[in-house]
Write a structure and sequence with these properties.
- It is a single chain.
- The chain has 170 residues and is of the alpha/beta class.
- The chain folds into two domains: 36 residues; 127 residues, Lipoprotein like domain (Double Stranded RNA Binding Domain), CATH 3.30.160.
- Helices cover 43% and strands 32% of the residues.
- Helix 2 packs across helix 3.
- The protein is elongated.
- It starts with a helix and ends with a helix.
Length: 170
Amino acid sequence: MSQKKYLNKKFEEYVSLRKLVFICILLVLSCAYSFSSGSLGGTLSISSLENKTQNPDIGRILTEDLIEAFISDGRVEIARASEGDYILEGVINSYERQPQSYTPEGEIEEYRLAVKANFSLKQKDKEESKWDRPIDESVIYPYDSDELDAVDSVATEIKNFLLRLILEDW
C-alpha cells in the first residue's frame, strides 16, 4: 500500500472517530439535561392575590411582580388567569409596619415592614394542592423613606422565593 493511500485511510478513520466522539458527547449531554427537569410541566396561571390587609397596594404589586418575574425568566410559560395547567394562588394575611429602632433622642430611626402570606400551587381541575407554603418576609427601612419602596422590597423577596420554589419542581 502506498504512503498516500495509507494516510488517506488513517485520515478517514480519524474523521470517523471524531464523529463518534461528537455523537457520544451529544448523547451524554441530552441525558444530563433530561435528569435535571422537575416533575411538573405545562403552563402556569397566576391568580390575583387575595389581600386581607389594610394596604391596598401590596396585592397588586406582588401579583404584577410575580407575573413579570416568570415572563422574564422564560422557563415556565404563563397562561391567562385560570387557563394554565397549574394555578398559583395566594393570600396576603398580614401587613405590619412597626418602629424598628430609635435615635438617642427617642425618635423613630427605622421601620420594619413585615408581610405574611400563604401560597398554594394547584393542578387545574384538581382540588388538592401540589404544595402549600406560608411565607413571612420583612424589610427594614429608614423613617424618611417612602413606605411604597419598602412594599416593593418585600414583594421582591416573596417573588424571588416563589420563583425558586416553582422552578425546582418545573
